[in-house]
Design a protein that fits this description.
This protein is about 40% helix and about 15% strand. It has helices at about 40-55, 70-80, 85-95, 115-120, 170-180, 200-215, 235-250, 255-265, 280-290, 300-315, 350-365, 365-380, 390, 400-415; strands at about 15, 20, 30, 65, 95-100, 125-130, 150-155, 165, 190-195, 220-225, 255, 270-280, 295-300, 320-325, 330-335, 385, 400. The strands form 4 sheets. Strands 4-3-5-15-14-6-7-13-10-12-11 form an 11-stranded mixed sheet, sandwiched between helices. A two-stranded antiparallel sheet has the order 1-2. It starts with 14 loop residues before the first strand and ends with a helix. The structure holds NADP nicotinamide-adenine-dinucleotide phosphate (NAP).
Length: about 425
Amino acid sequence: MFDKITAPQAGTAITISKGTCITPNNPIIPFIEGDGSGRDIWKASKKVFDAATAEAYKNERKIVWLEVYAGEKACSVYGKDVWLPEDTLQAIKEFKVAIKGPLTTPVGEGFRSINVTLRQQLDLYACVRPVRYFSGVPSPLKTPEKLDVVIFRENTEDVYAGVEWAAGSKEANKIRDVIISCGKDIREASAIGIKPISEFGSKRLIRKAIQYAIDNNRKVVTLVHKGNIMKFTEGAFMNWGYELARKEFGDMLITENDLHAKYEGKLPKGKIVINDRIADNMFQQILLRPHEYSVIATTNLNGDYLSDACAAQVGGLGIAPGANVSDDMGMFEATHGTAPKYADQDIINPSSVLLSGALMFEFIGWQEVARLIISGLEKTIGQKYVTYDLERSMSGATRAKTSEFADRIVKNIRGN
Ligand code: NAP
């Protein structure tokens, strides 16, 4: 039972069994429009999603959208300071698959990020961000097409776990006392944040990344960590990764050391290499030798930085998609923020939500819709009909509004 939303009579819930979606022809999918420029982006994206579904399946299949609330809109529907209503969490749990736009988070004060809270409350432990080049998109690299990675970022632990206290607070002072009693020192009146990394949390994330590599014929899995400095957290992440690879995927995976020691650097048929890189090295590796990387498994903060840096290499956040998944739920979202200075001006690039939608359609098994969205988008960019962010660094391009860009994609999807 919900408080202020009503499940549509016309639709049916998706179910997920052993990681696979069982999708009815009329699945109910909750959406969060998002704050700021999220409003424009969502409107444009929904139009494309519905058009691609209609093109793929005529009247046989149709998404039944259910609006649920978070962020500023939640406060106007549910009352002051209700940023994330229980209804929203319940609806996503019940309907299993959801999509969202960006939500505002104030820096250094006020409530915790709603995005982080959503991921943690729903235990969406893997943030999956595929980053690849789309032909025609302006990029700072000479050969951006060499980058094609899928980043699995742990979503529930690390310094994002929300275990921190303000400088000078009673709690911070108490924790400082405990730390000093354990033989370590912390400067007086310090703010304190805790970085928990567990074997359970690390292994389930790394398992998902390796399974993805196997299912999608990818040949390298890289564990990214800062284990040289944070030995018991980041270093343990790496050690648990190798241990899991050996115990659970020993017949498929070989280490980089073995690749050179036993196979003269030539990957045997049917095998996948597992290696690791220290995070700072990884940032230069991915820039200088992007083609050597494919699937990346990493801790929360590394993953946050690395996925934005990778997105920048292929043209920026405006076109980077993201998914937050567990074993029985998926929430798909734009990787950029609310870009408030562009709110309600109909100028922002909706591609991040569009491509997140394509991921969502793949997740629910409607591959045809995903392909239509991607090909419609590629065709539109190829026609140099793009939003401001791409237009400003593309020669001979036409600047389109968000809505015009979406309309052109729809036209290209319909093939006219
Ligand atoms: P942002 O909203 O991502 O915007 C930063 C800049 O990135 C924009 O000014 C714009 O650059 C570019 N950009 C972002 N989205 C774009 C799009 N769709 N099309 C074209 N360009 C785009 O980051 P922010 O200003 O740091 O954050 C604003 C708010 O969003 C904060 O409250 C933050 O906490 C929140 N946030 C939410 C999420 C989320 O919901 N998942 C993620 C990150 C941040 P130009 O100005 O150069 O054109």
